[in-house]
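Entry:
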Amino acid sequence: MNTQSCITALVCPKCKKRYDYRELQNLCQCGSPLLAEYDLERAAGMVNPGLLKDRPATLWRYRELLPVLDDRHIVSLGEGWTPLTALPAVAAKYGMGNVYMKDEGLLPTGTFKARGAAVGVSKARELGVRELAMPTNGNAGAAWAAYAARAGIQAHILMPEDAPLITRTEITVAGADLHLVRGLISDCGRLLSRSIPANGWYDVSTLKEPYRIEGKKTMGYEIAEQLHWQLPDLIAYPTGGGVGIIGIYKALRELRRLGWIAGKLPRLVAVQAEGCAPIVEAYRKGAAESAFFPDSKTVAFGINVPKALGDFLILEAIYQTEGCAVAVGDAEIITSLRELASLEGAFVCPEGAAVLAGLKKLRDADWLKAGETAVLLNTGSGLKYPDILHGGP
């Protein structure tokens, strides 16, 4: 494929300051994440749903709406176009309408993090990055280490010492420089903020570089395309750093401006664990930002993020789509994980199981109506959590 990106600028969603996408950027001067902006009128003249049908089944099928300018810089392991699978047994058991699972566990490195890594590393390579650094709860580090290795970029990864062993192994086998930290991902981030200036590394922490979100937004494109441009009533997502739900919201708005979808957007649902629920607490208060969630702990390690940099963008996505945020307990997560496996043959990650637990709560409260269509995001393979069911209910 030799098409051209329609990117025009990087824009701060808070102060509206614009930045050059042809230079390395991190946060806005005001401290906000930056979002990629595209000439959507031009893009609509270059690609349409009919043309997509003949394109490769990867996220790069949306090439005009991604930020890499030269195809030679694309770093790919075949990411994207994961299945959207119906869950009829789950729907019948809980009196739901149509329930679909977008299964990101089939991506390279076994999680949705491959999407952000593919686009983020490709753009970093295009801009001449030689070394990058990030904090991680595990899966993001594994994905960025793999894609960095393929791109010939050295990765420096900080992660909590109690992160899953399998992701530690993935990071080291890919040749990344791994440092284990006693504490949470927020502690890793604080340590890294002191190391990056001294070493000249490019900071690819969650939302501190603008392009991870561009990879994640392709989940929204794919859901719309796989449902033949007829949108579901709601999309539910396990939310830690929140790049996925922010990206899906961005995708839906871009698709509407392209004219590929019409009508009301799906209600976006952020699912968190009761042991780490800053977005849920903020939503209940009607707040625009979240407070730091102290002493956080959950079996769904990937969403153990006590304070997300993009919390205001997560909450905006929820409010603007008339969605909600819901918290579930660890026992509910394990029960839902077992149900997805025994009823549907899907061995999902605990974060994906949390979403089913959240949907059950919303159905019990009749917030999710009996005839509605819901999409559940499973963000990773259960095979990456071999000990998750030990001692579970």
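The domain at 7-73+112-203 is CATH 3.40.50.1100 (Rossmann fold).
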